[in-house]
Write a structure and sequence with these properties.
By secondary structure, this protein is of the alpha/beta class. 27% of the residues lie in helices and 22% in strands. The protein binds zinc ion (2 copies).
Amino acid sequence: MKCVHLPGFRSLLELVDKPTPVPTGTEVLLKVLGAGMCHSDAHIWEGQYDLGGGRSISMAERIRFPLVMGHETSGEVVALGPQANGAALGARYAVCSWIGCGACHFCAAGDEHLCATPRFLGVNRDGGYADHVLVPHPRYLVDIGDLDPVAAAPLVCSGLTTYSALKKAGPQLQHERIVMFGAGGLGLMALNLLRILGAPGAVVLEPDAVKRDAAMAAGAIAAIDPRAADVAEQVRAALGQPVRFVLDLVGSGESATLGFELLERAGKMVVVGLFGGAMQLSVPLLPMRAATLQGSYIGSPAELRELVALVRERGGLAMPIDRRSLADADTALQDLRAGRVVGRVVLVP
Ligand SMILES: [Zn+2]
Ligand SMILES: [Zn+2]
């Protein structure tokens, strides 16, 4: 099989050959049909997250090299271990990469994405930047039916992450407009999901003019430059109602600080992005505004099944996809880091 190796932090991604694994026990081998490239792959490549105030968190203890990244994978089953019941040869699936230890209280509750000792595909073990991927158990396969496997691959991370975060708005999502930071892969996915859910939609804050245009094309109510001096007035005018839900898909000190400033009484801000930095927060305004600040990390395997079922039933997923070959993975990652990607890069072997 061919796979893309990351030999170490900040190293060139290399296309290498290695023996194709033979599934044993409950394992399933899939031919990869699409492997989305996520901003967290850029963080893995860089080896750290910026926590703000000069602090950072290192990935050094979590990553073993060489690593095959790729946690947004779709594929077709080509071989099954003798105990791999519940998957069909030739069927197409999205691969749920969020695999926990199976023993902690998070895993017992079905929240494997919150497990403290994860075995995530593409992070802690080899993932989808390859022409084949080995999945430990059929329960991590979600049937995508007739969905385009290249378009469906990003549902596993950008889809699930935005879906789980949007659900945290509660029933108001169906009848109120929201404010959203970021029109990268997550932002365009969120706009797609709002449309599929029949929700009134979002006013988007995005500094890049090309990405603002992409947000408008994806159905944003308005796309505003957050660096404008009158940004708060522009957002309120475009929203036409109080700001009661802010979704921060960027997660920088600037976006989270501005997001909280925009929030009205009894509002909620959900932070998803991992750009890095520290937010300025007026402590008295938190109780005085009865505000809620919440973080959201990926989403549960059950939510992924819910999301795929929703997209299969209603259709309408129309993310801009930038298809690249495995050999082009290194260039694609650097394009993503430099902000040159509109929509989602999907490696297609
Ligand atoms: Zn991701
Ligand atoms: Zn666990």
